[in-house]
Amino acid sequence: MAIVLGRNVDRSHYELEHRMRGINMPTHPSTIRLIAYWQDCKTRGGMRMGCDVPDRAIAHFLQYLTVAEPVGEWADARIRLAGLAMAEYFGRDVGGALLSEIVTGEAREREFLLAGVRTAIARNRPGIIEQVLVDNGREVLRQELTALPLLAPEGDARWILISTFNF
Description:
Elements: E1 2-4, E2 7-9, E3 17-23, H1 29-43, E4 65-71, E5 76-82, H2 84-90, H3 99-102, H4 107-123, E6 127-135, E7 138-151, E8 158-166
Antiparallel strand pairs: 1-2, 3-6, 4-5, 4-8, 6-7, 7-8
């Protein structure tokens, strides 16, 4: 049983159709505000885990944020911080898990997400995906997922901050 938009769904979101597409401009107001914060951090040398995340300026977003560290050259990713929204979506705490362990659907979906992360880091700009979950032809959830390059707590390693906001 999964919770979607605050309602119990009679089957897991894994069984629902996932439609993903890259978009150029954010539309969710929270995504727009988070990207503005990221751009402000960028002017000061970049957003850094442990300094800018978490931070009081984005405290109200923390439940919707996930931080991932690369495994290899982003062949996979380890979840280092997972907000409450991720736990609700996956039905458990996913902190410390590999992306490949929690996104167990089609490999192409996982690769689509990882490709977006690699692109966001290479271009040092946000990568935005719209995801729609469909149940028997009916949209049950629409989300805006954004990947923002993030510096590791120490050094210049590139991690990723992912926000997931529901419409």
